[in-house]
Amino acid sequence: MNDIEIRDDRAAGRLEAIGGGEVVGRIEYFVLDAPERALVPVHTVVEPAHEGQGIAGSLARELYGVARRKGGVVAPLCPYVVKWAERHPDEAPAADPELLRAAKEWLVAHPERF
After folding, report:
1. CA 113, CA 107: separation in Å to the nearest integer?
2. 72 φ, ψ to 5°?
3. 21 φ, ψ (degrees, to nearest 5)
């Protein structure tokens, strides 16, 4: 993964991988405030021309880093992030089942968001 910058566009709910001046990958997420503060990734997308370069994994790793730095956790609903977390338990602590339930309920209540 050469010359890729990752930035958090919190207002848009996207963690973006920027390469060559364009977005080449992203994790779309929302912020859940209760039962505890959490970032909830819903979709991971990497542009086809950039697949296989480790971008999705770098985005997932940074998402957990952002959560740690901001004093929260990650409650993954995105299948990619769930699998990544299973492969990296030292970097991605398991989410509380109650938190995952609350995240799913929020997503159902806000279908327009994703």
Report:
1. 8
2. -135, -170
3. 80, 5
Residue 48 DSSP label: G
Q: In this structure, which amino acid lies at residue 32?
A: L
Asked if 10 contacts 40 with a C-beta cutoff of 8 angstroms, the reply is no
Nearest to 63 by CA among 49, 77, 48: 77
Round to whole Å and give the CA distance between 92 and 111: 27
Report yes or no: 25 and 46 within 8 Å, Cβ to Cβ: yes
User: Whole-model pTM?
Assistant: 0.93
Per-residue pLDDT tens over the stretch 12-62: 999 999 998 999 999 999 999 988 899 999 999 999 999 999 999 999 999
The one-letter amino acid code at 24 reads V
Residue 82, token pair as written in the block: 């769930």
